[in-house]
Amino acid sequence: MPYRNLAIVAPAVFYLGFKITRTILQTVGILRNPYMDDIAPGRSVPIFPDADGVQHDPAQQQVCAMLLGARSNHPMGVFNFPFKGVADRFEGMIRHLDAHPTENGFLGSATYLEAGGRGTCSEIVTIFYFESEKNVHDFAHGPLHNEGMEWYMKLIPQHPYVSVRHEIFSAPKDGWEGVYTNYPPVGLGATTKHYKIDGKSSWRSPLVRGTGKLTYSKGRMGKPFERATEWPEWEKTGMEV
Questions:
Q1: Region for 12 from its dihedrals, namely left if φ exceeds 0, alpha if ψ lies in -120 to 50, beta otherwise
Q2: How far apart are CA 120 and CA 18, in angstroms?
Q3: Phi then psi dihedrals of residue 78, to 5 deg
Q4: DSSP one-letter code for 148
Q5: Which of 28, 73, 104, 209 has fewest C-beta within 10 Å?
Q6: Positive or negative: CA dihedral 217, 38, 107, 125
Q7: E strands, 184-233, in order
Q8: C-alpha closest to that of 84 among 4, 166, 17, 151
Q9: Higher model confidence: residue 58 or residue 7?
Q10: In the predicted structure, residue 36 carries a pLDDT above the cut 80
Q11: Of 88, 67, 94, 76, nearest in space to 159 by CA
């Protein structure tokens, strides 16, 4: 019956038409493009504020990053039930660190879905940013992480397809940098640093405009360099970045 078939496909056709029309209107500028929300135009770089909240020189403190990953090797991927317990414990760690950042030397985190490995999107990776290696080790040896490790060790005999991993990178002073062009705050740029002014606590984003010496990698690392010889091929273009 044609009318019955029309009733079945009509919702899908209307929905697809709505999505296509909205995309076209956003593309030509009639409707606002929500994907540009929170974009920082131009180049931004991270410089953490000092104890007074002033952002002077780049890379003047140590930064330690811990990558914590979990993968489901089950045919159902991340939809396999035991994997939810892994995700719940990841979220619990983030909530705890967000609630107690100063005590843990925690700067922020970013979570990504790994999309290029083994033909599936079945790995979740969270990058935790800390002020030092000691902060990472104190957290890793603390009760919350220990509880998660105990839970996982009891899980794997029955569910060996649930995998976890971590990597730690410790960058010394003058040994790290970042740059974001037309990007929303992400990664290290989405962290915050605690400081006090007149005894009052405050938090500040590390992002500042990436101009002058901050145009160059060595400049963003707080290292000396000569502009004329640092990136000669780019200087020949006469363009500003």
A1: alpha
A2: 30
A3: -70, -10
A4: H
A5: 28
A6: negative
A7: 193-197, 200-204, 207-209
A8: 151
A9: 58
A10: yes
A11: 76
Mean pLDDT of the chain: 88
Q: Which residues, in sequence order, are CB contacts of 7 under 8 Å at separation 6+? A: none
Q: CA 127 → CA 24, 75, 143, 179, 185, distances in Å?
A: 36, 26, 20, 17, 14
Residue range 18-36: mean pLDDT, rounded: 93
Q: Identify the three-state secondary structure at position 203.
A: strand
Which among 168, 71, 165, 65 is positioned nearest to 117, based on CA atoms?
A: 71
- ∠ CA 169-172-175 to the nearest 5 degrees? 90
Distance CA 154, CA 150 (A): 6
116 neighbors 96 (Cβ within 8 angstroms): no
User: What pLDDT, in 10s, does the model give residues 82-128?
Assistant: 888 888 988 999 999 999 999 999 999 999 887 776 666 678 899 99
Contact present, 178 and 171 (Cβ < 8 Å) = no
Name the residue among 114, 119, 94, 89 with its Cα closest to residue 104.
94
Give the three-class secondary structure for 179: coil
SS3 233: helix
What's the pLDDT band for 32 if we cut at 50, 70, 90? very high
